[in-house]
Amino acid sequence: MKFDIITIFPKILDSYFNESILKRAQKNKKVKIITHDLRKCSKDKHKNTDDSPYGGGPGMIMMIQPLYNCLKKIRRKKNSRVIMLDPAGKQFDQKTALRYSKLDQLIFICGRYEGIDERISNYVDEKISIGPYVLSGGELGAAVITEAVARLIPGVLGSKDSLQYETFSGEKSDIVEYPQYTRPESFKDMNVPKILLSGNHKEIDKWRKNKKK
Ligand code: SAM
Fold it and tell me: How would you class 110 by CB atoms within 10 Å of its CB: exposed for 0-12, middle for 13-18, buried for 19 or more?
């Protein structure tokens, strides 16, 4: 699956994408993550991507022309969606991650400043928020969605069992994973539940099912 991220800060996510699971997923060609420098799509000789708002008001607004140019430049796969990061958009959740994981391509538009010229809506399939708070840009949102989606793509995680009982999995997304423990057996008088040391997998499964909320 391909993730295209349109941003004025094309390096801002590099270190995150080049570590751990996403690094391995790219190496194994399960995912391709490309960042597009919006400034390169500006026709302006100063490579500006923003301007002041019509009607007045604080801050700057991202111009539609560079975004339009950039979207046109990105080769679209058949099964793709253009996602605009927007605090007022539909809240991202595990169900959306699962839906996106079946696509071939996600294209993210990362806003900055006071937001984006409203006419961008004509080129966007979905406006998505990663939570009810305001960040300074859409890049973290693009990273959050990329990671949540990538780990659902077959072969990205080491074991597919990791996904089966995970929090928010299941048809109703209502599962919360059971508590987990590892060594040592005892830490500052806090002991691992005896059942987990028993080797009785039937009873362990029963205990885990009861502990799921
Ligand atoms: N003036 C805008 C408003 O009041 O809704 C906020 C703009 S915000 C400072 C700049 C950009 O950050 C947005 O265009 C969006 O791309 C991104 N952003 C901020 N918070 C976000 C959130 N919770 N989810 C997704 N994107 C967000």
Answer: buried
pTM: 0.96
Domains of the chain listed by start with CATH number: 2-150 (3.40.1280.10), 161-211 (1.10.1270.20)
Q: Spell out the per-residue pLDDT of the chain, length 213, in tens.
A: 999 999 999 999 999 999 999 999 999 999 999 999 999 999 989 999 999 999 999 999 999 999 999 999 999 999 999 999 999 999 999 999 999 999 999 999 999 999 999 999 999 999 999 999 999 999 999 999 999 999 999 999 988 778 877 898 877 777 889 999 999 999 999 999 999 999 999 999 999 999 976
Bridge partners of residue 37, in order along the sequence:
7
Ligand 1 atom showing the smallest separation from residue 88 Cα: 5
Using a 6 Å cutoff on CB, does residue 114 contact ligand 1?
Answer: yes
Tokens linked to 182:
């590892």
Q: Which ligand 1 atom sits closest to the C-alpha of 134?
A: 20
